[in-house]
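Here is one such protein, fold included:

. . .
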Amino acid sequence: MDFAEPEELRDLRDEARALATEWAGRTDPNPTPDPMGTTFGVPEDSWLIGTSKAFSLELAQRGWIGMTWPVDEGGQGRSTMERFVVYEALIAGGAPLATSWFADRQIGPTLLQFGTPEQRRRFLPEMIAGRSAWSIGMSEPDAGSDVASISTRAVRDGDHWVISGAKVWTSGAAEADWCYLIARTDPDAPPHRGLSEFLVDLHSPGVEVRPIVDVTGNAHFCEVRYDEVRVPVENLVGVENDSFRQVMRQMEHERGGIDRFVSNRALYDLVLPMADISDPRVRQDVARIESTYRIGRHLVLREMLGQAPKGFSAATKTIGTEFEVAVADFCARVAGAETMLWNRISRNACYAPAYTIMGGTTQILRNIVAERILGLPR
């Protein structure tokens, strides 16, 4: 087996790295002040907090949104590996991807699989052009990782669905144009039934977006309240009352990506030269981080190439988020007392527990691995 990387992928990675270097830290004005200083200027988690409409248009101009989508749907028809090397380099380098990230990673692929031809003709071109930003309305105040427990209601009224309820931890909702929302359409059905998915215009009457300022001062998470929001019937995605399968497929896109392994890579690369490699304990930490990254990278590639067992993204995401926490802890230990200052290292250390929550808690994902992959008893 030849593991050598083709020259065209090396050139593509170099191009993406150069673009990330050019754009790192350049985000749209944020109404929430950033109190963190600039000791380490390249932001981590840029795929989540780095909002930039200008960068989204730059990606579109290069054909880097919808890279693997079919040409007859407006995509580039490029290989999975090409998209992989581009986004690994962009996220690791701190490029401000948040504006286009959810559309490219999840919403577009979901519409390609479950959407109607009319929905694809309407929504995919705006995504590919970098002109529409998306969020995902899944978690609720009383239903986090347990999607089957959501209570947001959608009631049919003629040519519209009327949606009422609340979503929370909706990443990027304050800047998004649309939300891919999961609601309960049959309250009498079993928990995993009676769910449907909708494309909701966040500028509709009755929508209220409330940014949530976290301990780091960022406000990318939001609570979104829906008060009798009218959504056209043609915005229902897939099968009414039977979207749990669609939700799980969408989560495969979210949980099996390289973002979990490179979100704070830029910070690690900046801190590593400060480490005392003569200390055997530090060498062990570095070896563990580097080897875990390489293992995790191969797991992601298996996911993207369709070689992983069904549901294995739960394991990939668990390893990835625990890896992110390990990197944050390592950077804090290396920086020592400087971590007490309010800079990028302390921000990442404070934020690290969230890694194992968003996208499904580690506890829930370990249960999924045990029950659905290993076949262990409940």
Summary: The chain has three domains: 7-132, 135-241, 256-373.
